[in-house]
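Hey everyone, long-time lurker, first post.

I ran two proteins through the pipeline my lab uses and got sequence/structure pairs for each. Pasting them in order. The first:
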Amino acid sequence: MATLTPSGLHRSTNRIDEHEIVRQLNDALGATLVAALAGVKSRQQPNDWAKSGGGMPRPDAWNRLQFAHQIWTALQEEEGRDIARRWFIGGNPLLGESTPIMAIREDRHADVRRAAQAFIDGDVDE
């Protein structure tokens, strides 16, 4: 069972190209949800960020994308792709019934990490 320690998650994400991180999130969640969690208005921006040589998001959006990728990777490895996606878009009791997408957008990273860990550990129902 994975433990979502900030240092371990941060290390794994830092070894991946920035554009690849966005490509993986776009593939997993779709550009619309990636734009929502990053806090940007344009649904096209995540597609632009995913292109090699494309622009990169501003620092606050980039922090959200890195964090989302860390949580996505851990959930996907433990629970599988479909369940990880449903977790990201479903209301979560540990987040006040907010979705993890919106909690990440609101920079509630510690809350999201705890909710993801509880899910992996089986401490809450989906």
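...and the second, right after it:
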Amino acid sequence: MTSLTSNPKVQLAATAVVSAAVAAAAVLSYQRLQQDGRRASRLKQSIPGPNESDSALPTLTRVGPLPKPDKEDEHNQVLAHRAQNGDFDDELILEQLARNRVFLGDEGLARLRDSCVVIVGCGGVGSHACAALARSGVSRLRLIDFDQVTLSSLNRHAVATLADVGLPKVQCLQRRLVAVTPWVRFDLRLQKFDGKVADELLGGWVEDEGGKAVRPVDFVIDAIDNIDSKVELLKYCHDHGLPVISAMGAGTKSDPTRVMVGDIGASFEDGLSRATRRRLKLLGVSSGIPVVYSTEKMGEGKAALLPLSEEEFQKGAVGDLGVLPDFRVRILPVLGTMPAVFGYTVANHVILRLTGYPIDYQPAKARDKMYDAILAYVQASEEKIVRMIEGGRTDVCIGLKVPITPGDIAFLVEEAFRGRSAVTGIPTKLVLTRWRKPLETTLVRIGEGNAEQKSSNLRLRDLVCMTKEEATRHQKEILQGAKNLEDLYSREVIEMVEARQKEAEAYERYR
């Protein structure tokens, strides 16, 4: 073997073989590079130059002229107009979406490109969600927001620049994103969302100028930071079967590892989520809406919601200080990175849902059966009280109704009493019962004969959360007996229950 390798002829032959292989590889690599270069060149040539002229975008996607459009704006608008009218190489789009295509597959990407998403609220969270969806391939985006870009917006907005200050946020997004994804169609709605305009703003996407071709909305993103509007949006989507995901409070948060997706009924450690959940439960919506929220706890040295100064209160009605009636007036401390985390998490969820990609989030609490059981307990307890007050008559309870719903039960147990007994703090075998003994009849009669309706005058503020054993003792000794609350409970327990009942009373107006 040594003699062969040392033979000059063998060495020369080996060298020739290796050289030929290297040369062949170099030639093939050069050819591939040339092919790729020619392909890239062809794709680039399909993009119109800055001096090409064309008509403007359809008026459907505009809320007004851009302030002093520069040459880049004009070029981008021309390109967008051509792309949205089919004069754009689809291969170029697929090349831009190549990484998503590999991840989601051809079928998944096709679904995404054919989808229509509505984004309500285009501030920090909404703008990042919008940018991510456009870059990922969503071809129809309806943007809803009444506000304008301000200097303070620039610490968290996805695309706004100093040149955009004063521009409507919806228009700012369209202005900047057409330069990245010119094929995306934008439907801009410069208005505040509320229940009165829900049908219009969440209706189908009009595909033609005649308004005959209408396709349904595939997903709705809630990025609103106003409770009233947020609740109205989520209730509408829930009632109409519109897929929706809601972004909760990014303000005062700083830990991106605590941001997660979960059901509205299972979210915790988030003030906006808690307030929204309470209102929704009173409207009968206790689960079924995914939300993005942070489990980060508030603590010493951390940012908190800034209250209005006494000077502002002295100026007059606090509500008059807001941008719009019933809109928030307090200042939200926001770390600029956190709305982006929330926005991308929202967009990620929408992309996975639209494409059918597997999702394995933390499961929500399955407590609906518990709420139904507690409602049945409340019903039986009210029948006992009515019989007692009416002298033991059983006929008065036939057909008796209680004005309490499973949503009310969910609100009282989970929100007002924090999922614990008011007496001992025990979180298991919970029920609701009247706190105070009625001083007069609780029976309400309407109508006569077969048309008579019988109900209890029970209110949310009348109920208290206890374990079943505690409630049995309470009913026997307080509601049906002669003892006072002070005979069974400490002053601390009584004051805590009364505070919870005042909280329930304040929320009764939202039922």
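Reply from user beta_strand_b:
Welcome! Quick read of the second one: Residues 368-510 form one domain. Confidence is low (pLDDT under 50) at residues 50-62, 312-329.
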